[in-house]
Amino acid sequence: xxxxxxxxxxxxxxxxxxxxxxxxxxxxxxxxxxxxxxxxxxxxxxxxxxxxxxxxxxxxxxxxxxxxxxxxxxxxxxxxxxxxxxxxxxxxxxxxxxxxxxxxxxxxxxxxxx
Amino acid sequence: xxxxxxxxxxxxxxxxxxxxxxxxxxxxxxxxxxxxxxxxxxxxxxxxxxxxxxxxxxxxxxxxxxxxxxxxxxxxxxxxxxxxxxxxxxxxxxxxxxxxxxxxxxxxxx
Lengths: 114, 110
Description:
Chain A is mainly β. Helices cover 0% and strands 53% of the residues of chain A.
């Protein structure tokens, strides 16, 4: 089976712009979770989607949003980018909802905001 | 506040030696505790997942232990290899979310 894929792998944006990141889960997996990883804060949970519905959300401002499509692919959008949004954004897929299932992470999208 | 704290922050060992990484958590209630390995530039890879009732779990040279009473977990690596050089992250599942520790950066030297 192919693993979790994320596109693009690297991205450079300027402050105030918006960005959309994409995640394709492992075939058959219906849950996708998004995480932000920075050197200072480590890994932090953004949100989880299952069957096109957001099930859980972390403590991030409303500038961070996401969605999931009927084929389980997911997108994450960040509007009005700030310098502090520079991070590695990881998505993870799992067969079912919640955190009882094993999660499989993608390689991440490295976002740099200048 | 629900937290996961790991120690040491970084560790250097010689190839072939054993080491133990620590994880203390204050998360309650929790569903499961996981250990992930993250190589530089890559996403984390799951090593072990333990539920509340399990107190040890092995995956090859990796053995995780859990003491739910003291809220402590450890990851023991046996006969380390150069490829074990990575960040090891302890994660606690809490009401549908994952709370991550800051990780221990392990460097295995020849």
